[in-house]
Structure formats: C-alpha cells, structure tokens
Fold this sequence. Notes:
Elements: H1 10-16, E1 28-33, E2 36-42, E3 50-51, E4 54-55, H2 57-77, E5 86-96, E6 105-116, E7 119-128, E8 131-142
Antiparallel strand pairs: 1-2, 2-6, 3-4, 5-8, 6-7, 7-8
Amino acid sequence: xxxxxxxxxxxxxxxxxxxxxxxLFVDSLISYSESSIVSQLTISASNIFVQNNQFQEAGLLExxxxxxxxxxxxxxMFSEATPRIGYIGAIKKATFERLPSVGDDITTExxxxxxxxxxxxxxxxxxxxxxxxxxxxxxxILKPETNEA
Length: 149
C-alpha cells in the first residue's frame, strides 16, 4: 500500500534511502510520478555542508542526487525491495544563482529524461520560495545488486 503524499516522517524517508546522518539531505517527499519527484529539505545549522550560515554548492548537488535516489527508493518501497546505493556518474551544466541559509526550506524537483538499466539522467532544479536557485543535469548509476546466499 502506497504512502499518502506528502511524506514528512523522517523514519519513512529513511526507509526509502540508504543515506543516514550526517549525509541525509532530504527530509520530505512532496510528490512522485514515474518521471518526476519533488522533495524538500530544511537547512539546519548542524548540516556538514553549512559554512558561514549558508548551504554550500556541494550540499545542493548531494540534495539533488538524493532526490533522485528518493525516486528509486519510493518505487522500491512498494515492491518490498531494499533501497539500492547509487552514485553520481556525471554532472553537466550545474549552475548556482544563490545559496540557501540556515532555516530555509528548499524544494528540489527532478525530471527523468532518460532511464535504462541502472542509469538515470535527470534535469534537477532547486527552489527557494518558488524561485530557482540552482540547477543541473545529472546522471546517477545504481550499484549492482549482489546475490548473496
């Protein structure tokens, strides 16, 4: 049975992602479709990518990648599969117009433009108060599944 959206319970989010603190950069799932996903994150002062009260570019990129991973994890959750570990394979055309500050709620939207086998290419944008502050085209690759007996 699918979870009603949005999902704001961090325990449920953790069921869909292999990431854990201090490397967890998604705290809500807002919407999901076969070809897109929207997540949110509240920037906390304890975040390892916060410097001088601002969430840095590396954190925004990791938030983008984890949003893609959340798409895979949400789909896996309902087939009773374990969330798979993924890697950023390539980042193309990343731009950053503004860095969010501690306390800001960012919304990240990923649109899948290509998906084959364990590789996914997405266009990802991060928004703050409905204004785009960062975007990238990213390719993610899932770690191969192992058949352990």
